[in-house]
Amino acid sequence: SIPLGYFGGIGLASKNGILFKGSNFLDVMTKIDTIVMDKTGTLTKGVFNVQKVVTGSFDKQELIRLTAGLESKSTHPIALAISQYAGNQTEGLKIENVEEVAGMGLKGKVEGKTVLAGNAGLLKKYNITYDPVAEQEEDTIVMVAVEGQYAGYFTIADEIKEDAGATIKALHELDIKTVMLSGDKQSVVDRVAKLLGMDQAFGGLLPEGKVEKVEGLKAKERRIAFVGDGVNDAPVVALADAGIAMGGLGSDATIETADIVIQNDQPMKIVTAIKIGKLTRSVVW
Ligand code: ADP
Ligand code: MG
User: Which UniProt keywords apply (predicted)?
Assistant: First the structure.
């Protein structure tokens, strides 16, 4: 028979906005020694704001219009920031063939012009040389190329969630190592990880790069929970001993693959999930 304690644990978790997809994961959570987390939308609010737009000879207003046109087809937090910044300037634009380049950005046609918007990796992928000044920016950058030519960049900033620092501290008190994996550039990743006091942080990762890092940790016999929110996080969520989706901004694919779903945006719920697991265990045994 199934011990009553597990039903109690699942019920208690659900009252706390944590959905366990099986009672075994209550137990798995008590054995986790490493928590691997995505940055954007998990540790940070995922609500970006454009700080500035930098162009050379390319017309700034035109750059904003074309980029926002392209980004209007995406729901990525960065895309929302640029769309909001442009306001109604994209009304009536002809936008076609927009595709996501995983972990890098977007490609598509706006007003008949081929537009690329994303990180340095995206421009490198298309062999487009860009102004190296862009890479010295501290914030997240979105570089833009129009018709195969570098046209300028946006700087974008996100805010760390209120309870992110306390969460990392609480995890360390439970003797759990904390690792951040992100597609964002290393300088941004380092800044956030340092502020939060995390043990390790890796940036510039494509979805398969995140998978490799988690595979590397598994090969070292680490018991891993991965916490993520984005479409690109589904493969690592599946690979971890416990895959956790943050529900607030989470993508359907990630929520479907996850073993545990946190229904709001608070990272502290990870600590709650572990504590409920431990409590349940003490009742069951
Ligand atoms: P994270 O791991 O930080 O959640 P993602 O995997 O979602 O990041 O994206 C990785 C990187 O790709 C982002 O930091 C950004 O530089 C770039 N990127 C992704 N989507 C877009 C977009 N719609 N517009 C511009 N850049 C994007
Ligand atoms: Mg993400």
Answer: ATP-binding, Cell membrane, Membrane, Metal-binding, Nucleotide-binding, Translocase, Transmembrane, Transmembrane helix
Assigned fold of 49-157: Calcium-transporting ATPase, cytoplasmic domain N (3.40.1110)
Which residue type sits at 128? I
Instruction: Give 169-229 as a DSSP string.
Output: HHHHHTT-EEEEE-SS-HHHHHHHHHHHT-SEEE-S--HHHHHHHHHHHHHTT--EEEEE-
The pLDDT tens digits for 148-161 are 999 999 999 999 99
CA of 230 to the centre of ligand 1 (A): 10
> In this predicted model, what pLDDT tens digit does every residue of 211-256 receive, in sequence order?
999 999 999 999 999 998 876 788 999 999 999 998 755 567 888 8
Q: What is the pTM of this model?
A: 0.83
Atom 16 of ligand 1, residue of closest alpha carbon: 119
Buried b (16+ CB within 10 A) or exposed e, 10-46: bebbeebebbbeebebbbbbbebebbbbbbbbbbbbb
Where in the chain are the domains? 4-44+160-284, 49-157
How far does the centroid of ligand 1 lie from the alpha carbon of residue 276, in Å? 34
Would the ipTM clear 0.90, i.e. be above it? yes
Give the domain 4-44+160-284 fold.
Rossmann fold (3.40.50)
* Best mutation site among 37, 48, 104 for ligand 1 pocket (most ligand atoms within 8 Å of CB): 104
| 38 tagged catalytic | yes
**Of 27, 38, 59, 229, catalytic:** 38
Nearest CA to ligand 1 atom 19: 105
